[in-house]
Specification:
The chain has about 450 residues and is mainly α. The protein is about 55% helix and about 5% strand.
């Protein structure tokens, strides 16, 4: 874009190594049977799209567009047409997060930073704990929005309208709620960056897509009940609909204050900001205006998953934290100026908050009968229906019917039933699976095809 050129040949190496580390980590976690429902949901829906079928998840029971109106999944389905594989999702996610380094580098140079400072900012971005943790935790389209947001800001600053519009469209296609971030970014561009045309585009497109997604697309493919089940339950104290929430905000603001000023929110803010606290100065923090919707949603939620650096919910904030650091360094106001010290600070917090340590403990819990589980999966040769555990499900989702939650009276609806009694996952207990296995052994419609190390595969005759 414009006349910004990559002066440091090492940037390409950094991006490549980062993508490889992220990809290897996510695949390893998956292969150790630690993936779950989110990955299964996206893999099944993208697979169904690629096959020309309705992407209605048998796991959650609704159309993929009823979830977050994530139209970008239809583009990912093109990769599944080459070869259907869940590893495409891992590859896209890891590559997208690593590629965020490139607009980060350009933004640093465009702001007037020296070469070594630009590389330091790239290191800060890649070592920010949430980048690694969110990549590790299955797949979410939000990860694609991170480099797109960075590219949108770079395009606005370098006056590249096509790049800006494409980047905004990518962000909007990742998740409906990101339309609020786009609109807030528009306010920042309009008032503080003096990019009025770009700001207006972002504000209008953000508001328009929020209304279209939530008032037309999601209700058409799902229902208000779907929205409540999937998302609004995280804000149960704010009512059970948008109208109830609005009334509480207007007439009972004390309810909101009581849920914002809490210890868990204070802890969340500490971990969110401490990796980059060295460069957050008041005059350089105007980009964080764009992060207000995302931050507010996380602070208001009464679900702990939105208040940590493990899940993906804080990803949009990273873009504007990085922009704040760049502004602080460019003004010579950052508390730390030296490249080595900046990288060491980031490395320290990556080591402290990154969840790579799970590979030495938590992620190894299924190793004792890992081989038997893999053998059981390999014996499922067709695309017929499957009932299995939540951690096995993402390995078999490329079919129209697969579930891990079941009613004992509905087992005859499945062609294959594969359970790991010893390591049952997080949803169903060992006792329930033992009960299921015992019933299937006496069920004349099923034949026991495989049994080893507490792994059982039944096939309907």
């Amino acid at each position: 874009m414009e006349k910004l050129n990559i002066k440091n040949n090492n940037l390409g190496v950094i991006v490549g190594i980062s993508a490889l580390i992220l990809l290897t980590s996510s695949i390893l976690r998956h292969e150790l049977f630690n993936s779950g429902g989110d990955l299964a949901f996206f893999d099944q829906c993208v697979y169904l799209i690629s096959q020309g079928k309705q992407p209605i998840s048998s796991i959650l029971g609704f159309h993929v567009l009823a979830d977050h109106a994530a139209g970008i999944l239809y583009f990912l389905a093109l990769l599944y047409k080459i070869h259907p594989s869940v590893y495409w999702l891992f590859t896209v996610q890891s590559t997208a997060l690593a590629l965020g380094s490139i607009p980060t580098y350009f933004l640093a140079l465009q702001a007037g930073l020296k070469e070594n400072q630009a590389i330091a900012i790239v290191a800060v971005y890649l070592l920010y704990p949430l980048i690694y943790n969110a990549n590790l935790l299955e797949f979410h389209p939000d990860t694609i929005a991170v480099p797109a947001l960075l590219t949108a800001v770079l395009a606005a600053r370098t006056k590249k309208i096509i790049w800006f519009c494409v980047s905004v469209l990518v962000v909007l296609g990742c998740k409906a709620v990101l339309s609020l971030t786009v609109a807030a970014m528009g306010v920042w561009l309009l008032l503080f960056e003096k990019r009025r045309f770009y700001g207006a585009i972002a504000i209008i497109s953000g508001i328009a897509w929020f209304l279209i997604a939530n008032k037309i697309i999601i209700p058409f493919f799902g229902s208000e009940a779907t929205l409540l089940t999937r998302h609004l339950y995280r804000y149960s104290y704010l009512g059970h609909s948008f109208s109830e929430t609005l009334q509480i905000i207007l007439f009972q603001p004390q309810i909101i204050f009581s849920h914002i000023f809490t210890l868990i929110n204070l802890e969340y803010l500490f971990y969110l900001l401490v990796p980059v606290i060295w460069g957050l100065r008041p005059k350089s923090m105007t980009p964080l205006i764009s992060a207000i919707p995302c931050l507010a949603l996380n602070l208001l939620a009464d679900h702990p998953s939105q208040k940590n650096l493990i899940w993906h919910y804080s990803l949009p904030i990273i873009t504007f934290l990085i922009l704040s650091l760049i502004a602080s360094l460019a003004a010579g106001k950052a508390w730390i100026q030296q490249k080595k010290v900046i990288i060491l600070w980031s490395l320290f917090w990556f080591l402290a908050l990154g969840k790579f340590g799970f590979f030495a403990g938590k992620y190894l819990k299924n190793l004792d009968n890992w081989q038997a589980t893999k053998e059981g999966i390999s014996l499922i040769k067709t695309k017929d229906s499957v009932l299995t555990t939540d951690v096995i499900t993402p390995h078999l989702t490329q079919r129209e019917l697969i579930r891990f939650q079941y009613n004992i009276n509905e087992v005859n609806n499945f062609h294959y039933i594969l359970v790991n009694v010893r390591n049952p996952g997080l949803v169903v207990s060992t006792a329930d699976y033992n009960n299921l296995v015992n019933k299937l052994k006496t069920n004349s419609q099923f034949e026991l095809k495989y049994q080893k190390d507490d792994v059982f595969l039944f096939e309907q005759k």
